[in-house]
Design a protein that fits this description.
A hairpin with a 4-residue loop joins strand 6 and strand 7. This protein has an 8-stranded antiparallel beta barrel. The chain is mainly beta and 120 residues long. It starts with a helix and ends with a strand. 8% of the residues lie in helices and 52% in strands.
Length: 120
């Protein structure tokens, strides 16, 4: 199942190495989580702190967004989908990116929604 999901992303997309993202700080609520993205590394806090690598980055051919990133740690994975559009939640407003994360909590798949902004 995991392989099929990753393969599907890559068959309809292109790498965005030449159009890299700036370092981003992301957050979401209900449930609470945070994600920091910086080049090839990520820190994902969702019940526990997980240091992850970003081995794959893709985007739709012919468009700058959405972008997808595959995050991998020793026991955890996540797929991050970024859209460049204003994002508001109950806590943050006017962030420039909207994010959806497909991950898991134990064996249960979870989709998280939140917002990202550039970090300095």
């Amino acid at each position: 199942m995991r392989f099929a999901l990753f393969a599907g992303l890559f068959l309809t997309s292109a790498s965005f190495a030449d159009n890299a993202l700036p370092p981003l700080s992301c957050e979401g609520h209900a449930p609470d989580w945070t994600l920091s993205l910086d080049h090839d590394e990520a820190q994902f806090i969702f019940g526990k702190t997980i240091e992850m690598t970003i081995p794959q980055r893709t985007q739709v051919r012919g468009a700058e967004f959405p972008k997808a990133l595959t995050l991998i740690a020793q026991r955890d994975t996540a797929i991050v989908i970024l859209h460049q559009r204003q994002c508001d939640t109950e806590v943050v407003t006017a962030y420039p990116y909207e994010v959806n994360i497909l991950t898991q909590k134990g064996e249960e798949p979870v989709i998280l929604r939140g917002c990202c902004t550039k970090t300095q």
